[in-house]
Design goal:
about 140 residues, mainly alpha, Four Helix Bundle (Hemerythrin (Met), subunit A), 6 helices, about 0% strand, disordered C terminus
Length: about 140
């Protein structure tokens, strides 16, 4: 199979995965991409390579998460909004200062958020119970 065909197959699979994923699963996918950008940015900064594009993309993701967040949808949304705002500012500063440690600190904040979403979509739903501890997937996605 040619490289072009493999690339087209991967693109089709990725597109299909996104179009058929639940809102909660889409949020996990967004967090996964954010973590990838942060990993790449940190590695690039530590090896004196250009990390600007990775940091800009991470900032765009955080801004999308922030603007899509409905702070009235659940109890912890305002705190999550504050975390997103903090992350955005830190990544802007990390980009200006070329600071891999700041990027690593941001990643350390993002990973538990991603894991919480992944756990929430795997947890069995209890009928008639709406938890005030878990964000509504539709509030962010």
């Amino acid at each position: 199979m040619s490289t072009a065909l493999k690339g087209a197959g991967v693109a089709a699979y990725t597109s299909h995965s996104r179009s058929t994923a639940s809102p909660a699963r889409l949020v996990v996918m967004v967090y996964d991409r954010l973590l990838l950008d942060l990993d790449r940015a940190e590695q690039s900064l530590r090896s004196s390579e250009q990390a600007h594009e990775h940091l800009l993309h991470a900032q765009e993701i955080i801004m999308e998460l922030l603007t899509a967040l409905d702070v009235t949808a659940w109890e912890g949304a305002r705190q999550l909004s504050g975390i997103y705002t903090f992350l955005y500012r830190e990544l802007v500063e990390a980009n200006i200062r070329r600071d891999p440690d700041s990027v690593a600190s941001c990643r350390a904040l993002v990973e538990p958020l991603r894991d919480a979403w992944a756990q929430a979509i795997l947890a069995p739903a209890e009928p008639g119970l709406r938890s005030s501890h878990h964000p509504s997937a539709t509030a962010i996605a």
